[in-house]
């Protein structure tokens, strides 16, 4: 198994574990940042199948060596999953911090939530600006 395949399976394992622990039917593929994570890592459905036979602990070890950008996309995707709960409970925030520390990506839930909301704001402003410039309003 290549290191890229190991990373993909590890990402899927962690995401599946998070959804299972949340006890909800959260849609990983519907998360706003999952699409970017999938595009960056080339995750496929077979990676999710492979993730069912891998332990979370071994996945965390694999993810420690993953590139910073991929760790950030994973963090943003997890933030999307957790943000489905309003307000986000202390236990989910602690779980996030523990995950990030385990993969040596020292970013807090508050920081990643701020990044996520800033991206959402800029996306909304960009859509509004594009609408304003369209022929419809000129």
Return the average pLDDT rounded to an integer: 84
- From the N-terminal CA to the C-terminal CA, the straight-line distance is 56 Å
Shape: globular
Main pleated-sheet profile: none
- What oligomeric state do the depicted chains represent? single chain
- The helical percent reads over 70%
- Number of β-strand runs: 0
Structural class: mainly alpha
- What letter string, H or E per element, gives the SSE order? HHHHHHH
Radius of gyration, in Å, reads 16 Å
User: Low-confidence parts lasting 5 or more residues at pLDDT below 50?
Assistant: none
Strand % is under 5%
The DSSP helix count reads: 7
Describe the protein's architecture and organization.
With 138 residues, the chain is mainly α. It has helices at 3-22, 34-41, 45-51, 56-64, 68-82, 90-102, 109-133. α1 (3-22) packs across α3. The protein is globular and about 40 Å long. The chain starts with a helix and ends in a 5-residue tail after the last helix. The model has no long low-confidence stretch (mean pLDDT 84).
């Amino acid at each position: 198994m290549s290191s890229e395949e190991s990373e993909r399976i590890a990402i899927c394992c962690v995401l599946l574990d998070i959804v299972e622990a949340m006890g909800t039917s959260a849609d990983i593929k519907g998360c706003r940042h999952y699409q970017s994570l999938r595009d960056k890592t080339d995750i496929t459905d077979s990676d999710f199948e492979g993730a069912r036979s891998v332990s979370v602990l071994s996945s965390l070890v694999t993810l420690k060596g993953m590139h910073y950008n991929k760790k950030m996309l994973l963090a943003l995707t997890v933030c999307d999953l957790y943000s489905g709960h309003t307000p986000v409970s202390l236990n989910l925030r602690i779980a996030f911090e523990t995950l990030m520390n385990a993969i040596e990506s020292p970013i807090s839930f508050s920081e990643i939530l701020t990044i996520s909301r800033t991206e959402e704001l800029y996306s909304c402003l960009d859509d509004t600006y594009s609408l304003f410039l369209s022929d419809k309003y000129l």
